[in-house]
Amino acid sequence: MSLGPVPILLVAHRGFGDGLLEAARAILGQLPPVDSFSNEGLSNPELEARIHRWLDGHPGPALILTDLGFGSCCVAARRVSRGQDEVGIVAGLNLPLLLAAFRSREHETMADFLRHLARRGQESVEVYSGGNPA
Fold it and tell me: pTM of the prediction?
C-alpha cells in the first residue's frame, strides 16, 4: 500500500514561499495543489491557529514545508502537529526539495516520504571554489 499524494502547506517568511512557488511553476508548469502563506503580521498564537485550521481541513496525512527549523513558522507547525504522526514537517526548504515534493509523492509511509525529501534537499547543496568542487 502506498501513501499516495498528500496535501502540502508551505509556511515561510514574507516572499520566500511565493518566490519558490513561482520558480517551481517556471520549471514544472502547472503545480499540484499547494497552499501557502506567510507569517507576516501574525502573532505566534495567530500563526498556530492558521496552521491548525489548515490541518483541520486536511485530515489524514499532510506535509508542512517551512523555511527555518528554528523560525516561528516551523515552531508553530511543530506545536500544532504534536502527537499527529501523519503530519510531516520539513524545515530548511529549498527549490530542489520543493520540486521533489511535487514530483515524487508516492511513498510507502510518511517517514519514507520525509526521508526522501530531506535527502533531496541535502544532496542539492554543492560547494565550489574557483569553479571546482571544494
Answer: 0.93
Query: Contact 106/2 with Cβ under 8 angstroms?
Result: yes
3-state secondary structure the chain: CCCCCCCEEEEECCCHHHHHHHHHHHHHCCCCCCEEEECCCCCHHHHHHHHHHHHHCCCCCEEEEECCCCCHHHHHHHHHHCCCCCEEEECCCCHHHHHHHHHCCCCCCHHHHHHHHHHHHHHCCCCEECCEEC
Question: Each residue of 52-105: pLDDT tens digit?
Answer: 999 999 988 999 999 999 999 999 999 999 999 999 999 999 999 999 999 876
Domain borders along the chain are: 28-83, 93-123
* Cα separation, 61 vs 110, whole angstroms: 7
